Amino acid sequence: MKILMVLIGLVLLLPGLCAVIYLVTMLPFLWGDPATFGLLSLLWIVCGFITYGGIRLIQRGAGK
Fold first, then answer.
1. How many domains is the chain built from?
2. Contacts of 19 (CB under 8 A, 6+ apart)
3. Of 7, 15, 23, 25, which sits with the fewest C-beta atoms within 10 Å of its C-beta?
């Protein structure tokens, strides 16, 4: 059961990783359009919460 929790946690880390990579590469292009930047900020926050859930699941699966 612990191995399954760690595997699911690793899968949940992927949206956060993708969001950070996208943020770093696309931020200079999005800076001039506040409407798009605002909507994407909300998406990045959601991805951050999903990633946090993955981190907590990995910690729980590892027994910490």
1. 1
2. 43, 44, 47, 48, 51
3. 25
More confident residue, 35 or 57: 57
Q: Which domain does 44 fall in, by range?
A: 2-62
The 10 Å CB-count burial string (b at 16+, else e) for 18-34 is ebeeeeeeeeeebeeee
Helix 34-62, helix 2-30: angle, nearest 10: 160
The whole-model pTM stands at 0.76
Backbone angles phi, psi at 63, to 5 degrees: 85, 20
